[in-house]
Amino acid sequence: MKIAAIVPAAGRGVRMNHSLSKQYLPLGGKPIIARTLLALENFTLIDEILVAVRKEEEEYCHREIIEKFNITKVRKLIEGGKRRQDSVYNALEVVGKGCNLVVIHDSVRPFITEDILIEAIAQANIHKASVVAVPVTDTVKEAKYHGFIERTLPRENLWAVQTPQVFDYELILEAHKRAKKENFVSTDDASLVERMRHPVKVVEGALDNIKITTPEDLIMAEAMLRELGG
Question: In total, how many domains does the chain have?
Fold first, then answer.
């Protein structure tokens, strides 16, 4: 079985309020994206990695991330699109021949563990689609435009979705093609598969598999890294 990983990394991360794109900010002395790619590099099940980056950052990413940290599984840097969904689609179109499964993972989730990835891959191998998620612990309420609560959602049925998300290659490619054709946009790849009426298996993730998008997230990540001794 051949498995490719796609890492969309073309976002700017304006909430960080920094001149560098968020994925290139340092975490414990290494850029966040370098830590993410090194984690994927070390997973023996991953055969190749495709990274979608902004065109103007391609040279920087190649020199300061891929070469500097000797990340050998990155087969190609792909020009990212305007939206995350566009970046993933661009990468899907150049996945290596014979690919069976695709792992899609955020560039700013550096704490992914091998156990979680292995389980997500195993479930995708059975069901053709899996997402890593954690149960929602807060009470969640739905409020409409007028600002008053409409209803309280049963939290036992709610999951906060993370990445990685793993799919059969042909399935996720078809899902992206349909979405592009029908001008459907989502921030989540699984949503594109769901709208095709294909079931998606939930794999329980971890609370420390955080996505670093704000300065507060970065502070938390630094603390986590110190606790892990990294």
Answer: 1
